Amino acid sequence: MPLLIARNAMLVVIDFQARLMPAIHAGDKVLLNAGRLAEAARLLEIPAVLTEQNPRGLGPTVPELAGTAGPLISKMSFDACAEAAFLDAIAGDRELVICGCEAHVCVGQTVLSLLEHRRRVIVVADAIGSRAPESREIAISRMAAHGAEIVTTEMVLFEWLRTATHTQFRAVSKLIR
C-alpha cells in the first residue's frame, strides 16, 4: 500500500546533535520538522528510535528532540545498521520514517542499508539536512533511485491521521500551523 499507515510505522531520528546542528544548512527548519514528526509520533503512539554519531565528539541529541520516546543508539559507524542495537530496535516489518543529519552521510548510508535489508523506507525531505544544500539534494536523488520514498513532513502527518475525524486530528494539525 503506498499510503503510510500509523499503526505500522516507526520514526527513525538520526544524529540531531548539539555540535552538528549549527553547521546544517537551514538547520532550524530541519529541526522544526523533525520535532513535528516526533511530537506526532508521540501523540499517535508510534514508536521511535534515535541515534547519535560519536556523541563524545558531536555532543548529545539537541534538547528539542532529546525527550523523544524510544531507545537511543550511540554509534561510531555512519550506517546505523552496523550497530546490532539499532537492528534490534527496528526489528520487525514496520515502515521506517526517516529524519536526520547529514543526508549524504549517516542518513544516506543508513537508508541504503535499510533498503538492502528489504525494509520500506520513507525519507522526509524537509526533515533531513546537510551542511551543503547540494549534498542534501544529491543524497535525496540517490536514496530515491535505490527505492526510498521521498515525502514531506505534512504528507507523513496527514497520512498517519487519514481523516479529520481522528481523535488526535486537532493536536497533530496544530503542529503545522
UniProtKB/TrEMBL annotation:
Pfam families (UniProt xref): Isochorismatase
InterPro entries: Isochorismatase-like_dom (IPR000868), Isochorismatase-like_sf (IPR036380), Isochorismatase_domain (IPR050993)
Database matches in CDD domains: YcaC_related (cd01012)
Occurrences of domain Isochorismatase-like (ranges): 10-154
Superkingdom of the organism of origin: Bacteria
PANTHER family hit by this protein: HYDROLASE (PTHR14119), ISOCHORISMATASE DOMAIN-CONTAINING PROTEIN 2 (PTHR14119:SF3)
Protein name stated in the entry: Isochorismatase
